[in-house]
Amino acid sequence: MAATMLTTAAAARPVLITRQGAGSRKPASHAARATHLVVQAQQDVDNAATPQAPAAVAVPETPAQQNGAGSAVEMLPERELEYVEPSGGDKLWTSLRLISALPWRRFKKGSALVLKLGGAIAEQPQGRFSSTVSLPALCDCLKKAALDPRVAGVVIKIEPLACGWAKLQEVRRHIEYFRSSGKFCMAYMERAGEKEYYLASACGEIYAPPSASVSIRGMSVAGTFLRGALEKVGIEPEVRRIGKYKSAGDQLLREDMSEPQREQLTALLDDIYDGFVADVAASLGKSQEEVIAFMDRGEYDMEAVKAAGFVTGLVYECELEEMLKKRTGGKEDQLPTVGYSKYKKVRPSTFGINAGGKKAVAVVRTSGAIIGGSGGTGATITAADVIRQLRGIKKNKAIAAVVLRIDSPGGDALASDLMWREIQELAKTKPVIASMADVAASGGYYMAMACSKIVAESRTITGSIGVVTGKFNLAELYTKLGYSKEVLSKGKWAQLLSEAKPFSEEEAALFDASAMHAYESFRNKAAASRGMTVEATQEVAQGRVWSGRRAATIGLVDSLGGVSRAIQLAKLAAGLKLDERVRVLEVSRAKTSPLQLITGGGGASLSATLGMLLLQSVFNGGSPSQGAMATGAAAGAPLLMQALSAAMAGSAAGAEALPAAGAVRAEMPDIVVEGVASQALLAAGCAPSSSPLFDDA
């Protein structure tokens, strides 16, 4: 009816996987065990009963295909990624494969793999025409390089980054895996804030020019509010929200932070700051107190930074190249290197990675705002496309289990529910494990809770089980402008979303009832799927967002880690051994085409919404990304006016203005204020929708 907005330290200890008999059908309480994961196993595959149809809001249990009952308890490895030195036979097979490699996959032995990281790191695999670094390809490059006898070491040139902390945790994990091979790993950076340094600290050596700007001074999060500005122009937001912590809408309604908003932002800031300090200290071999003391000094002189042990050396890039020549044995006039674009084309199977097994684990990557329909462009999750993928996987008997990778702040509620149901249907036939990236909140969490188990990074932002809905009342603005609008309608609720008048008492009551219904449905499904009572779920819902670390302690997440951890759980749930070879199939479609490159396509999506203030705020106060904040705010102002102008016209033209209004967020992911409240404009009637929206917090 209304365009409702429903808001929506990697684990170091072992994770217990308790195997129970097939006769046990009582859902386990996730709240009581943050890291103890129950995986249903069949006593006898031949005599296993078909899973019963789930209740209206229950997530079906996943039947595990296992030969025999297995041990009572299986222990996952403490380290998610563990480097194992290849055997003599493996090395021989690798050499034979390299000899027969295609010409464009060959390069000189003793080369340095050079990776340039800056801007966004895409969650989705990218097409061959794309220059964007993707997370799966980057991680594969580091795993391949560890086993590739042609690669002497890795050099990572780090530029200002525009991605979340969870992705950085995943990349760090793979850097540490590469370093376990004994090869050298260097980081080179000219400008660095907390995120850039966090990545660099995982490398064995950190280099920077003497004039570099390395600003590691702490973190902050900020909120801005439009109430005063909207009042001056005669715009009245009429927002209804369910949930104490539901802060989407605060930017329109308030002039300062609410206490619940302050509480949850402080908790997120604490978790990210503490995790940063702990990880950097461990990488540098320093105490956490030493790292905090260095940050509090506000050091800017690079000689002092080096003296404190936070960089290895001060060299210019040309000097770094000379160092590399000595490391790699390169000639005086030639440095043997291979870049990301070429190396990503080397097949992982060359080194026995993700290959050799009879069974496969499919990794389905979804990222962006959730929308209905199919064929979405840019960073979107289109329900029809995901459903098509899941149904194809369901029919494929070679696929034993599925990892559903989610990086989404939410979106269309109907689309979220359709995918939720399809995930349930798939889970009746094979295990489905959710792997959360930077954000899996609201509609993103809605998808995850349908899975058998949920894995998140400690700094993933998740939860946001809440509702916000409303519209703009532009009546006063119309009067000030001398703008008249006359509407003919038939039906009691025909003008429910009209921007030319405020809600009547009956309309407000209907809106409130609709929002409460949507919230209770979301909350109750979450309770059933997580094996929690409605009362317990209510305590952790109410629109609150959580870090992955805290979510694991309250039952919203099962385990901490990345994609590799999710694959381990998927193998166990499918009755496979942890050391059993399986093929890992990336089934996501690449989204960059030659036409998009020519037209600058891809575009901004509705993920750039008001709620992203909370979900993807900047938590690195002194970083270079803050310099983009003023630019982003200035760029967002005319876009906001463009969207509001379209809204005043009451036409579908508003739909065209909305993505533009959110473009600032798409281009500058670290801006505190994400352009405009595009979803709120959508709710105002700019682009009428028959479906509610699960929006970010």
From TrEMBL:
It comes from the Eukaryota. GO terms for biological process: proteolysis. CDD domains: S49_SppA_67K_type, S49_Sppa_N_C. Residues 179-320, 426-576 form the Peptidase S49 domain. Pfam families: Peptidase_S49. Keywords: Hydrolase, Protease, Serine protease. GO terms for molecular function: serine-type peptidase activity. The keyword GTP-binding does not apply. Belongs to the peptidase S49 family. This is Peptidase S49 domain-containing protein. It comes from Chlorella vulgaris (Green alga). The lineage of its organism: Eukaryota, Viridiplantae, Chlorophyta, core chlorophytes, Trebouxiophyceae.
